[in-house]
Design a protein that fits this description.
The complex is a heterodimer of chains A (about 110) and B (about 210). Chain A has about 110 residues and is α+β, with helices and mostly antiparallel strands. Chain A has 3 helices and 4 strands. Chain B is mainly β and about 210 residues long. Chain B contains 1 helix and 12 strands. Classes of the chains: A alpha+beta (about 110), B mainly beta (about 210). At the A-B interface, α1, α2 and α3 of A face β4, β5, β6 and β7 of B.
């Protein structure tokens, strides 16, 4: 009996984990209005402490076609993005992507790319 | 068949584990983890469907106790605190599968087996604290509890893409086996998505862990 208790706990946990993994039915945020000029975006991110954190954000953001470049600065706790002309990545969607990577956005700053 | 699975577990272990670090990756990410410790060797390949959880297959061999197991493992990131210069996590994991004795003369019957595990960590770029507790059991074969605590620091700060070095002091307690309290020193090299750890216990037991994300 002593041996079976952890097995039952493991089975219950697995069932709950799989059930909790149901995709979020919420619709994605509506696309922002395309910006005709290329932008540089600096995002201050909380929780950035290691290369795994950096790679997580890089991997998720690089999936977007309107993101030309991603640079993670662990020293400053910042993510620097280069957006292509016509990019539709708004602040709300950007914050969601970083949250989906596992981190929290503290501030977003945008300026035209030189 | 059982010998083949044990051999595969040993190969995974020899190839590299993490190494007690971030058992949930980015959405869509794959992670290979190998852990070699005096009492056990294991390999885990998991996929991360969302930032909240990962699911994968684990092969594990209890070296001293003389049994192996294979099964499905789920890990849930139950809580994460993202602070301006720190991160803290609570992970809950469980594996369910089958186990078989590997000692000479033991029967080859596969029994239900699994483990439950809780892991918590707090980390800045300079300091890390971690604790882990695991209860592993195989029906009619064996049950073992394990608790481990780690504290470490990075002697220098490296930015993303450079090689990071960490030094840890570790204390492991096992409820079974000849060496129940195992203090150890572990060094970690961390480069982008590759994490390697090597260490020694007070009795010379080898610790080799690898984690690769792709």
């Amino acid at each position: 009996m002593a041996h079976t208790a952890p097995l039952i706990a493991a089975a219950v946990f697995l069932a709950v984990a799989v059930a909790a993994a149901t995709p979020n039915p919420a619709a994605p945020a509506a696309a922002a209005t395309p910006n005709p000029t290329a932008e540089a975006v600096t995002v201050r991110v909380n929780g950035l402490v290691c290369d795994f954190c950096a790679r997580s954000i890089e991997a998720v953001l690089k999936r977007r076609r309107d993101v030309a470049s991603v640079h993670v600065d662990l020293d400053r706790g910042e993510v620097h993005l280069g957006l292509r002309p016509g990019a539709t990545l708004g602040d709300k969607e950007l914050a969601r992507l970083i949250r989906d990577s596992g981190y929290a956005v503290a501030a977003i700053e945008r300026r035209p790319r030189p | 068949m059982h010998r083949h699975l044990a051999a595969l577990a040993a190969m995974l272990a020899a190839a590299g584990s993490a190494a007690h670090a971030r058992p949930v990756s980015w959405p869509g990410g794959l992670t290979l983890i190998q852990e070699l410790e005096p009492g056990s060797v294991s390999g885990l390949l998991h996929v991360t469907p969302s930032r909240h959880w990962s699911l994968g297959g684990r092969l594990m061999h209890m070296r001293e106790a003389g049994w192996s197991s294979a099964g499905l493992q789920a890990t849930w990131l139950a809580a994460r605190a993202n602070l301006p210069a720190a991160q803290a996590n609570l992970y809950l994991s469980a594996m369910a599968g089958g186990a078989w004795a590997t000692a000479p003369g033991a029967g080859q019957t596969i029994r239900p087996a699994g483990f439950v595990q809780a892991q918590a960590d707090w980390e800045t770029r300079r300091v890390m604290l971690m604790g882990l507790a695991r209860l592993t059991s195989a029906e009619r074969i064996g049950t073992e509890g394990m608790a481990m605590a780690r504290a470490g620091f990075a002697p220098f700060l490296a930015d993303y893409g450079a090689i990071h070095l960490w030094i840890f002091g570790e204390l492991t307690h096992r409820t079974e086996g000849a060496d129940r309290w195992q203090p150890a020193v572990v060094g970690r090299l961390f480069y982008r998505t590759l994490l390697l750890e090597a260490g020694l216990t007070d009795r010379g037991g080898l610790i080799l862990n690898t984690q690769i994300r792709f």
